[in-house]
Amino acid sequence: xxxxxxxxxxxxxxxxxxxxxxxxxxxxxxxxxxxxxxxxxxxxxxxxxxxxxxxxxxxxxxxxxxxxxxxxxxxxxxxxxxxxxxxxxxxxxxxxxxxxxxxxxxxxxxxxxxxxxxxxxxxxxxxxxxxxxxxxxxxxxxxxxxxxxxxxxxxxxxxxxxxxxxxxxxxxxxxxxxxxxxxxxxxxxxxxxxx
Length: 195
Prior knowledge:
This protein is 26% helix and 31% strand. A five-stranded antiparallel β-sheet has the order 2-3-4-5-6, sandwiched between helices. A two-stranded parallel ribbon has the order 1-7. It is globular. It has one domain: Peptide deformylase (Peptide Deformylase), CATH 3.90.45.10. Strand 5 (108-126) and strand 6 (132-138) form a beta hairpin. It is α+β, with helices and mostly antiparallel strands. The longest helix has 15 residues, at 163-177.
């Protein structure tokens, strides 16, 4: 089932999400709905807070980047099979030089900005079967993970922008929270005027 994506301004996007266990109600159905919702919105990642749940769960399917000729062969090789469920994820280590890449977010439609992130991360997480994994991610795989991880920490990519950029985007962000935006997917707006 396709769920509405929570728009910028909703308090759930600012909460530090809580860990879950295998007894979380209807988890398999929730994960399936998150995949459907993300694919419908043509996203590469979706975190549970973006559908109104303050839990440490997100899904990533970066395989569309596997076809991007502008990326390095190494990035394309990793990304073409990078489709995972991440539960109770942790970043254990961040290293390498920070690099800039234009990011967007399904909760913040029509805004893309360059964001600096470190190039290499070591992570630990549980998959949908609650098996533990530890991995080191580089490049774009690391970036997509960091973006979704920020969501479960109550952080948005716009928080990482300069104060000047934030001021320039202020009106656009206010309009998103009020529902004054045309997204190609279902959204839930925190401050939209009810008719």
